[in-house]
Amino acid sequence: MIQSLKQEILLSKNDPYILGQTIQTIYFGGGTPSLLDKRNIEELLSGVKNNFEVDPAAEITLEANPDDINAISLEGWKNIGINRLSVGLQSFIDRDLKWMNRVHNSQQALLAIKMIKESGINNYSVDLIYGTPSLTIEEWKKNVETIIALDVPHVAAYALTVEPGTALQSMIKLGKKADISSDDQAEQFLQLMEWMKKAGYEHYEISNFARPGFRSKHNSSYWKGTPYLGIGPSAHSFSGKARKWNIANNPRYIKSIKKNAIPFEEEVLTKGQQLNEYIMTSLRTIDGLDLRFVEKNFSPDDRLNIESDSAVYKNKKMMLLENEHLMLTQEGKLFADGIASALFRSQSE
Fold first, then answer.
1. Rounded to whole angstroms, how far apart are CA atoms 156 and 133?
2. pLDDT digits (tens, 9 = 90+) for 141-175
3. Alpha carbon distance, N-terminus to C-terminus of the chain
4. β-strand 23-28 against 54-64: which pairing, if any?
5. What is the pTM of this model?
6. Which of 41, 92, 201, 280 could cysteine-pair with 209, CB 3.0–4.6 Å?
7. Which of 81, 7, 21 lies closest to 240 in space, CA to CA?
8. Model pLDDT for residues 186-205, shown as the tens digit of each residue
């Protein structure tokens, strides 16, 4: 697989999605990249740097599980150029970690953060999950207070979701696991926003909180609609006007790459789809939806329609308008996807 990834990097050297651009961020994610040997990560990084123009100050992130973090791995990652970590911590409650089938326990989670601090890697993020069936508001507060006390620079907090067709959904249907409560999730999210604000974190995207200067540059590029290129099975790419995705099947991916052909499907976005992408992503951010951007890059009618359709949410105190930017209020963030879809334009346009 590593050889195939290296070959795809080479084949993508002149990919039109990012041709002529200087790479500002590199992200090792999907699966468990922290299980890779340091040399493999270094080879992939070298491949990117040899085939693309990479900013010397580029943010280079590695997703890591707490049980893969130790003094040796941290030193190795740091030496090859990894300057940011994203840690799948999820919780400091052993019961919930076990419920989520996580390998690590709460002590390993705490130790992982301690070792990261000692390693000198000061730019890192941790994931937290809320809304598990047995999580009380007191336990959720303890999780968040632990993060704040450790002065973690970046936190990504997600509500537990049950995806259709998954093993979790089947177990809930069979009564082998308790179902989640949307009311509890809403309460925990509202409290999270209050606690993080009070602690001085910037709520710069619905699920993301950062100390000043520690926003994720990589994820921010997604929300700003910046073109990006994905490498590997299931990897997605975006040009602003089109998106493509590699096949998910590993053997088929490897077989195709050996023939010097990247196996992908592509969708060219209509103007309406491009606008909807902007509506969805911009409303999730602290900056909100720029009506002037819509008017300039789409049409004056689109701006007027969005303004008209947003009136009901402004009246309900779920949105506000400041300096020609539409933004969600704390209450509105509970219904972000629904509000965004209500503002969508015709995708066929």
1. 20
2. 999 999 999 999 999 999 987 656 655 556 555 56
3. 41
4. parallel
5. 0.91
6. 201
7. 21
8. 999 999 999 999 999 999 99
